[in-house]
Amino acid sequence: MDVGDGELLRLIGEGNRRAFDVLYARHAPWLVLRLRRRCRDPELVRELLQETFLTVWRAAATYRGDGAVVGWLWAVAVRRLIDARRRALARPQSVGSPGEEILAWSPSAEEEVMARAYDADLERALHRLAPELRAVLQATVLDGLSVREAAVLLGLPEGTVKTRAMRARRELREALS
């Protein structure tokens, strides 16, 4: 299939398995490399890749086409990585020698509730941002791209990326204070 990513997502949304295979072959290699830069556990990287493309299969019909597909794929993968890290932090883990049962720190119920409340406030504040500011924040903060990488991904000059990132942070600070 020699079609663009947006068209592939439209076809995937209609249940086209061939389009899914093409999108996977096109994007899985770089996605694995990017995930490996943020996670050293190869098994977790494989799980994250699988979860990302499972989400793509299920949610392709919801893709609005208001940005590059690669950015959308990376955002899905990063959310999966964040979820995996949160799950790992929430599980108590044994430390020390096998006979010595000492539990590592895990968040209290109050901390979990406060984190969810903060996350909800942050999510609401993010959704109030203009789409162009949200896209820059997603690329530079959530995706961990440099200003240069974000500029290439978003098709903007580097100075514009910096300015929008500064504006977005200022608006978030105001919304969260």
From TrEMBL:
Species, as recorded: Micromonospora viridifaciens
A GO molecular-function descriptor: DNA binding
Protein name stated in the entry: RNA polymerase sigma-70 factor, ECF subfamily
GO biological process: DNA-templated transcription initiation
Cell cycle keyword on record: no
Transcription found in the keyword field: yes
Domain RNA polymerase sigma factor 70 region 4 type: 121-172
Annotated RNA polymerase sigma-70 region domain residues: 23-88
Family: Belongs to the sigma-70 factor family. ECF subfamily.
Keywords: Sigma factor, Transcription, Transcription regulation
